[in-house]
Specification:
Four copies of one chain form a homotetramer. By secondary structure, the first copy, chain A, is of the alpha/beta class. Chain A folds into two domains: 64-318, 3-Layer(aba) Sandwich (Aspartate Aminotransferase, domain 2); 322-428, Aspartate Aminotransferase, domain 1. The first copy, chain A, has helices spanning 9-14, 21-24, 50-53, 62-73, 86-100, 116-131, 148-153, 157-160, 185-194, 222-234, 305-318, 323-345, 365-377, 402-427, and strands spanning 28-33, 36-39, 44-47, 84-85, 108-111, 136-139, 170-173, 205-208, 211-212, 218-219, 238-242, 266-269, 282-285, 350-354, 357-361, 380-381, 383-385, 391-394. In chain A, helix 13 (365-377) packs across helix 14 (402-427).
Chain lengths: 428, 428, 428, 428
């Protein structure tokens, strides 16, 4: 049989200009394991991007890998629409047993199309259907995806500019801390919802990320989240927590909100839920709001059978007891310590984030880009986020061995130091 | 390690009410190969649904399966965002060599989120961006997905009813044949676009499926498609052909439109593009319209590395020469012959569709459902489509051996005969 | 006290570029009576424009004039918000006695802001509120105003282009005869509303003018109107007839639809309802749909007290018995005869309209404009309408004496003859 | 000729439920002069509502009255579309000479449909056209009208609830003081517009009333207005000041903003601009933004010829020199003194407003309603405003003689005292 060559000139010739990460990280990658990426020339990179938090358990986890190979080799179903399959039953059982029940969550699982955006679209539609309202409150610097419904809730102007149509049905309010620490944005939300003449319609839902991944690692406090949850309840709105990026352990616990004393009506999940980086997304919804009719929100790839195999392993392996979560604390300390050192090198730098979703605001997008470029030259894949891309963001696999974590942080520290030094020279 | 059991009661307990196909086909499936599905009790079913045309090459094609296992076993990248990867380069090269070049298509490939809806969202956004216009012309009975943008273009009222917000930016016009064969709907389109007072804004795009998969297998003629393409050009609108369901050989050729003498500005693909049923979608766009900025339309799962492996094999195996396409003609004859026999059993029945996307309109959704239910009882998975679910639709894998195809058609014929007979008895 | 001069240079200096009629009819007008306009230099013009049908009873009708002077002189209320006033009671009583009761109409009267657009906005909002639906079916070449809601229903692309925002919530379908006489557009409406997959949501209302004043004097037949009324009823939609231009006798009877055997749920009126050209508009609504809460749709100038005075006189004087309506038939004959003569002068010309809302489609906007310009030079004010301004439109006051009507028609005939002759010379 | 009787039962029988003011003030009014209303039984009322500020110069001002009678008696044009007329030229000249020029305003005048809402619709459309942007920033508790475009900018939930369609294209931000005096809402506006990821699109315009008439008499400070004007300029947005209610002297000067050191790009005016309570509205726009094409925003009643007559007199009589404006200061003192007395009677009461647009927030809508009801029983027409109708609002004609003003205030003071006393008794 034919084997088409791997010709790197084809990207330039045939891939759309919309391609993006490959511009900053321009190697042609071929293999990956754990926290390492390997390119076609055999160069190795420590991965502090982890598929934007889609690879929380690292690349090609050996247990998931074996289970997936066994499944494929045994002619296990590869595509099953939303039919009942053995592997889906196993995943749901594991998810019920190890995730939902221990957290007293009675939520149902809806498999949407396998992207975070699709889960968000489903959540917004469902909240509107359940409440009979249209308005959804979202926040400054929130990111929820770029399909039209999700994009309405996304704050990023570059992405919104691509909509080509007026984005409606969302009221934008300031996230916690947006106006500085002395201005209480939850109070503002409460005031506007309580005022019949504020111009803010009673919302179907209030939706946010507890840690804004793309928006610059702004982390909401437990108290703010609790107050917003209470305000939502008081005003008949559903609480939607978009845990696409911050979920699956990234915040230090399975759900980013589980220590906050709130019970969201809807949770959206994607990215690391498959465990292996495979496309999969789901929406959790409390039974009383599980009101879509059969296939009312549908899609060919709702549910991904291969992903059910690996997702089940991920849950059984990492979340059946507390050991993994305990390890995360140690890794968080290592990251914090590295970031603290970095922040001392950059005047005015601020630490951002929570759990293992951390970064440092270096004050400018140019500086952050220069740092990441230099780190990449030295074998570390790391990206920026924030309104002006001014936050260097660490999204290392949660399974990264401490030594690798330290090694990556060292590369980053060197990159920061050298970049800052260069800039000083350039300025003189 | 733990292994969660496959407990079928979990579906009722934990899966959302939105689940759908599993209601009609209530087995718990575990394996599949070629054109057969096998359930947990070992029962075998001929599959005339094929993941709604996502499994055009059948389940677990051995060559794709082996390549995928090899890739996984060798720690090939599982998730690569939109980084350059060897497997993506190979896929693009194969796609260029065997699909685009032979058809004189200079299109670029944009990997969107791995669902047809996402490709459609990207296409609509891009057409709006390129033209600076908002309006998109779509047609009666069209189906393009259920995220907000795509849903605006979808005709189905049940799905539209789930939007929870006014669906804007789309003008709906009658598809070919909608008002009967003597009313020229292309002329109507032309008249409305040419009339500055028609209330139809100059469109960014005219978008349609050449064969409406969910809308009842309405097949547009080459002449109508050519005329609409010409009208689009005359009015500065992009031509978008949504080949998500009709593409990848389903219509008898790789693209559903390739014998029609048109060159769409944008083509959306998903479903069978991965070859293996894995989530993958892409948008083809002519270079002059490839105007998204980097990541302007983005998403974590744009591009699916595992799918690149199988998609490349699918192209190399089935589309490198004409042999597969030749075989399709024979299979089309077999299907047509079976459907002709069926249509004689049902008074007023009408044949629908084109290529290997065929069906019979039996006049009522109740009758169609009864037929499919009986066929399922006899080991055939087959579904309906159409505004009132009145069309029994055959979407058998294109690789189905002739004997299996005939066997499936025989089950279907028996189901029709018996159902019609029962109904006559019941009526007497 | 000061008296500011009438300085015509002020228009150029201080009036917005949006000014329009004054560009074609560039005199400075000062007085008017009956069917005549008089400019500041004492030139007299026959008025076949009549304030776009706002002056159906001519300028400064002596009875209305006297009543209005008496009202003002006696310190009658000039502005009364929506308070009860004696003059409003008198108007309502006259309207009930001479208009509603004889036509078996149980409608309530809602005084909206004093423009047709405002009445249309109120009608659209009310239909949406009553039905809980959003979609409103409007037709090609319809004109309903240019505020955002009304503009959504207006077909004219020039006006729609000024919206600056996507116009949503309206489905556009072809008016009677739009696709030629052999294509039944009511059937198309019925088919699309009856098809759950057509993409046309169940409408809150179907709204149209029985004679499209701005759209080119397209007159719907009684049968088409009846069928559309029936379709609306069958599909739970309100029937809104926009009688802003065709009402108040313009079609030969008080309402344009009163001989058609339909009972609209909502009727919008403006233009000639005040009788005197004063701003006034109202919406008629059947009691079961009179569902706005107090002031839910409001506005400072809802109801115009001066207009109540003249509107009452108009009704008492012209509509208390049949004599006026009888006279209209004779005038209609005169107009028709003139237009028939004109149409013979222009190859391919077509008569348009109904009642005393008539015109001739001369095939091009340039020709129509040239005719009107020449007529104006000879003392006749007359305008065009239609998608390309290709229809010369007669909207003479209904009270125009036969001699004046004939005199105006003669000017028009001469203008047509001379323009056509000039064009022939120019072409040779 | 017939004369229809003034039968008050007709209101119940035939006027829509949307009627409103007549519910609270249930007399049938017949005459009015100066600051007095007279009902059909000869009862006299002091008018502190003044047509919601449409009668700033009182009822039936004798000079305007005589000029209007003369105009009508002399067959002056009553309705002139947007033709040039002598009376329009006179009005424009007066407006230019006495209003625009002395204030160094180079604005053009666009006559829109004769309602404030229509002027606002035109302003929003124009700002969008000029900038090519869609978003308009409006504020909490703002009121701009109830047609669809204007309603999008209006804050009142009761009115928004009547829309029946999602209201899009407006970002809502807190007005000055909304979150208390220590939170700087202009800073918030600046921060959100300056943040590319805030989710607030670059606006076409920032629009507000300097004193929110319906929203509770919230008065913006000169500093806040200047800062917002600067922010608008910095971000390429037009500054629209909606002076429909606060203009024409109500704030103590002709324009409410004229002492603030800002030059709005667009100003909307209606209500008292005619001087006599006749429907009239206009939009002022700086020449560089006067970009509507001819009739692009149109309407039959744009310009009201009778209103031009009275509007000119109003300007010549009251604004040709400073004497009227000087008198307003004395009246403001009288009102303030009365309100100060009132606020001492109601625990927690707060004075609201600016200029002669003043009121007192009595803390609850029930109390405010009871006060107004009692005042009405004693011959004073006065209304409430505010999100919960908790502000008793004085909108007396600006021409009210001091004695009448004091008399009205005394009735109001008695009403407050008695109502508070009654409430205390009831509570005990």
């Amino acid at each position: 049989m034919l084997t088409s060559p791997s010709d790197p000139t084809v990207f330039q010739r045939r891939e759309s200009e919309a391609r993006s990460y490959c511009r900053g990280f321009d190697a042609v990658f071929s293999q990956a394991a754990g926290s390492e990426l390997i390119d076609a020339d055999g160069n190795r990179y420590i991965d502090f991007l982890a598929g934007c938090s889609s690879l929380n358990y690292g690349h090609n986890d050996p247990d998931m890998k074996q289970a997936l190979i066994d499944h494929i080799a045994g002619d296990g179903i590869a595509h099953g629409l939303d039919l009942h399959t053995e592997v889906k039953a196993r995943f749901l059982t594991a998810f019920e047993t190890h995730i939902l029940k221990p957290r007293n969550m009675d939520h149902r699982v809806m498999f949407t199309g396998p992207t975070g955006a699709n889960a968000v679209e489903a959540a917004m539609k469902l909240a509107r259907k359940v409440t009979g309202r249209t308005n959804i409150v979202a926040f400054t610097n929130g990111f929820h995806g770029v399909t039209q419904g999700a994009l309405s809730a996304t704050g990023n102007g570059y992405h919104r500019g691509g909509a080509g149509i007026v984005l409606a049905g969302v009221t934008r309010l300031p996230f916690e801390g947006y106006m500085g620490s002395d201005i209480d944005t939850a109070l503002m939300l409460e005031k506007m919802l309580g005022d019949p003449s504020s111009g803010v319609e009673p919302p179907a839902a209030i939706m946010f990320e507890t840690i804004q991944g793309e928006g610059g690692l702004n982390a909401a406090s437990a108290e703010w989240v609790r107050r917003v949850a209470r305000i939502a309840k008081d005003h008949g709105a559903l609480l939607i927590i978009d845990d696409v990026q911050a979920g699956c352990g990234r915040a230090g616990s399975f759900f980013s909100f589980e220590d906050f004393g709130v019970m969201p009506d809807i949770v959206t999940m994607a990215k690391s839920i498959s465990g292996f980086g495979l496309p999969m997304a789901l929406m959790l919804v409390r039974p009383e709001h599980d009101k879509f009719g059969p296939a009312e929100h549908n899609g060919t790839f709702r549910g991904n059978t291969h992903a059910f195999v690996t997702a089940r392993i991920a849950i059984e392996k990492f979340w059946a007891d507390d050991s993994f979560q305990e390890q995360l604390k140690q890794k968080e300390r290592i990251i914090l310590s590295g970031l603290a050192a970095i922040s001392e090198m950059v005047p005015g730098a601020r630490l951002k984030g929570r759990g293992l979703m951390r970064g440092v605001d270096v004050g400018s997008g140019d500086l952050a880009a220069a740092i990441c470029r230099r780190a990449y030259d030295n074998g570390l894949v790391i990206e920026t986020s924030g309104p002006n891309d001014e936050v260097v963001k660490i999204l290392a696999p949660l399974t990264t061995p401490d030594t690798v974590l330290r090694k990556g942080l060292n590369i980053l520290m060197d990159a920061v130091r050298d970049t800052v030094t260069d800039m000083k020279f350039a300025a003189e």
